[in-house]
Amino acid sequence: MELIQLIVAAIWFILPAYVANATPVVLGGGKPIDGGHTFIDGRPIFGPGKTIRGFISGLAAGFVLGVLQGLATGQLHLYSALGFLLALGALVGDLLGSFIKRRVNLERGSAAPVLDQLSFVVLALLFASLVSVPSWEIILIILIITPPIHLATNFIGHKLKLKDRPY
User: Fold this and answer.
1) Which residues pair with 38 in a beta bridge?
2) Which of 15, 46, 117, 164 gets the highest tally of CB atoms within 10 A of its CB?
3) Which of the 8 DSSP states describes residue 31?
4) What pLDDT digit, counting tens, does each position of 49-72 carry?
5) For the residues of 34-98, what is the DSSP string, one character each?
């Protein structure tokens, strides 16, 4: 497979995770998923930026995209499951990243290179492996392209006044 085809295949595969990770920025808000509770260290579990509405909207958006991919390819069952698992994994990975950032006393919105860009995609790939494991080339491309895509979309979100910080 040529490099361009591999990149397109990688984006096609991981797209529900990307969409799930981005959707809460636009549709989130409301009650924090941790209910405002703190962990045993006295810090927020996830913080006020991780909301129930954001989680549910991200999960729904990733799943719907998976359904659309399934309809487009004639593999509805596979892509529906894959969309759901990629979205769920991405959101759990993002929560894990926030949990870790709170444990090391980083404020909401603080940069944590690598953790911010890859925690969501690594968990998405792990969850998706329950139904489909892409080739090692696809996984490698996903891991390489995700940080610059993540940074670019955050920059755009900042310019659109959807995010406080451009990273």
Assistant:
1) 44
2) 46
3) S
4) 999 999 999 999 999 999 999 999
5) TTT-B-TTSSBSS-TTSBHHHHHHHHHHHHHHHHHHHHHHT-HHHHHHHHHHHHHHHHHHHHHHH
